[in-house]
Design brief:
alpha+beta, Uridine Diphospho-n-acetylenolpyruvylglucosamine Reductase, domain 3, 4 domains, four-stranded mixed β-sheet
Length: 467
């Protein structure tokens, strides 16, 4: 039996004192989308959804939930892939999507202050119009910035620019007991005690609720060029990546892709990929102040690729040419998802020099197990996305094959000194594999941090490091 309070009419009445009733969903008013995230097979409905519009509202709801011992699940757009925003203990779900305002653009300090419900794609459009640049580039552009902060989202530009954590200067958060607190700020350097800000980034809503973020911006690169490079084999393509990265050139992005995934994307989009001569490709992007500057970078990379057996070099130096390639790459997840009845993902990250070994292992595993497994990923930072497809398997066989395939891949990742997740987080789905991959001491420290922030364990229970 759950240790958490089951909500009743008195709780609805109480919460309605803090948040207008029209922004509360109760019982049958809660639609199906709130029961799961983008990929999770486990559905669990919250008993109440509260659509907050301020930190003050969040504070009052959290204080009430803490006093009554009600589980609280923070949620943004619900685009996660590991069950982080699934209300396992039902209770209250706090929806932050109405907190979607731009609060301040500080061009002197190169910062942007936003509420957590602002979408990633909106941030890009907003700052680029002003000649500025927010580098993190996760694949799901309709995700909220609060969700990106929650999982420390990465994306394709991480190889050059880093991940979300590298661009969060400050946060306003609401703790489990309702306390509103600010961490970090607009300062560039800070050695003032433990870095609570960086601890909160990537904590998946288990430590506190983010209600405001101060983001670091850069000047907008004026030009960018993409290279699509076909190789005879995937081994040659991926084997070239360490040579590129160890040269004096840092591409903005280095992606690898196989023909079978490209074909899925073609079918999904109804458009042909710009090239069809190879089974494996590298997709590279470079940015800079001018085409002349960028050409110095990609000329040397082109030479490396040709020396390693590349069949051709396709230069996308116009927006139209680049869009055709990157749109296909951006559709990979939805295309694979549409090709099967159900799927689950392994989001491992391994040292860059080990990417080829892991991908070859996956190829051998799918032959051995006789199931469809598809992969693509960020070759430049070692983060791979591997999808196990259910197709026509019954429930029993699917559970058996999925568990076996995942276990084998996580064991291999550990052998290669990799980690369970590169950018999607742990949530509910990957928790058993995190426990296997980390020392007991690490798990104990994480659990101690969770207890310090949330002594009653009401915030997003059963996620990351807690059973």
């Amino acid at each position: 039996m759950s240790e958490y309070k089951v909500l009743d009419a008195s709780d609805l009445e109480a919460i309605s004192q803090y948040v207008p009733r029209e922004r509360i969903l109760w019982a049958d008013e809660i639609n199906e989308e709130y029961s799961h995230d983008e990929l999770s097979a486990d559905a669990s409905y919250p008993e109440m959804v509260v659509k907050i519009t301020s930190a003050e509202e969040a504070s009052k709801v959290m204080r009430y939930a803490n006093d009554k011992h009600i589980a609280v699940t923070p949620r943004g757009a619900g685009t996660g892939l590991v069950g982080s925003s699934v209300a396992v203990e039902k209770g209250i779900m706090i929806d932050t999507t109405l907190m979607n305002h731009f609060l301040e653009l500080d061009e002197k300090n190169l910062t942007l202050t936003v509420e957590p419900g602002v979408l990633l794609m909106e941030i890009g459009q907003y700052v680029e119009e002003k000649g500025l640049f927010y580098p993190p580039d996760p694949g799901e552009k309709t995700a909220t910035i609060g969700g990106n902060i929650s999982t420390n989202a990465g994306g394709m530009r991480a190889v050059k620019y880093g991940v979300t954590r590298d661009y969060v200067r400050g946060l306003e958060v609401v703790l489990a007991d309702g306390t509103i607190m600010e961490v970090g700020g607009k300062v560039v350097k800070n050695s003032s005690g433990y870095d609570l800000k960086d601890l909160i980034v990537g904590s998946e809503g288990t430590l506190c609720l983010v209600t405001k973020a101060i983001l670091r911006l850069l000047p907008l690169p004026q030009k960018n060029v993409s290279l699509l490079i076909p190789f005879p084999t995937l081994a040659q393509a991926i084997g070239t990546v360490p040579l590129i990265v160890s040269s004096n050139v840092i591409p903005t992005a280095v992606e690898f892709m196989e023909r079978e995934v490209i074909m899925d994307s073609e079918e999904y989009l109804g458009k042909k990929f710009p090239d069809n001569q190879a089974d494996a490709y590298l997709l590279l992007k470079f940015d800079g102040a001018s085409v002349e500057e960028i050409s110095k970078y990609y000329d040397s990379v082109a030479q490396i690729c040709l020396e390693q057996g590349a069949l051709d070099l396709l230069i996308a130096d116009t927006d139209e040419r680049a869009e055709a390639i990157w749109k296909a790459r951006g559709a990979f997840l939805e295309a694979i998802k549409g090709s099967t009845t159900m799927m689950d993902e392994v989001d491992v990250v391994v040292p860059r020099s080990c990417v080829n070994e892991f991908v070859e292992f996956v190829h051998d595993l799918r032959k051995e197990m006789g199931i469809r497994i598809k992969s693509f990923g960020h070759a430049g930072d070692g983060n791979l996305h591997v999808y196990i497809l259910r197709d026509d398997m019954d429930d029993k066989k699917w559970a058996e094959m999925l568990g076996k395939a995942m276990e084998r891949m996580y064991i291999k990742a550990r052998e290669l000194k990799g980690q369970v997740s590169g950018e999607h987080g742990i949530g509910l789905a990957k928790k058993p594999y995190l426990k296997e991959s980390l020392p007991k001491e690490s798990m104990k420290l994480m659990q101690g941090i969770k207890k310090a922030f949330d002594p009653n364990n009401i915030l997003n229970p059963h996620k990351v490091c807690f059973d």
